[in-house]
Design brief:
Layout (H helix, E strand, L loop, with lengths): L4 H16 L21 E5 L5 H10 L3 E5 L1 H4 L3 H18 L2 E5 L3 E5 L22
Parallel strand pairs: 1-2
Antiparallel strand pairs: 2-4, 3-4
Helix pairs in contact: 1-4, 2-4
């Protein structure tokens, strides 16, 4: 697998900045509320083109959690990955959801009622930290 390197580091920094902003603490007024009768799915999707961002948004709007593999698009254009992730960060903030990096080539996006746990301190007894 190709190493995504420094250009992707800027995208990751943008996601981390979004994780720390105060507006993420309170969901937006127009948050997505999944129908209590409906099922929530965890879907793994590849990001092959900028047009795939709309499909990701639809999945999150319908209450699903998306694990997005950015490597397929990153092998074509790092600039397109930056645009896609920036758009998804803004979308996620607007709907009151959450977004975080999972390793070097994946991003997880959740709808409003679901938040991503982030380890704040060093784990005792050499426990393994989560990928978030």
């Amino acid at each position: 697998m190709p190493k995504l390197g420094n250009p992707l580091d800027r995208v990751i920094a943008k996601i981390k900045k979004a994780e720390r902003t105060p507006e993420n603490l309170e969901p937006a007024a127009e948050t997505i509320q999944a129908n209590p009768q409906s099922k929530v799915y965890l879907k793994a999707l590849p990001l092959r083109a900028l047009e795939d961002v709309d499909a990701v948004k639809r999945e999150v709007e319908s209450g699903n959690i998306v694990i997005l593999k950015v490597n397929p698009l990153a092998t074509k254009s790092i600039d397109d990955v930056k645009k896609a992730v920036s758009e998804l960060v803004e979308f996620t903030q607007n709907v009151g959801g959450d977004i975080a990096r999972l390793g070097e080539e994946r991003v997880v996006i959740t709808p409003a009622p679901i938040k991503i746990w982030r380890e704040k301190t060093v784990a005792p007894n050499d426990a393994l930290p989560t990928a978030a």
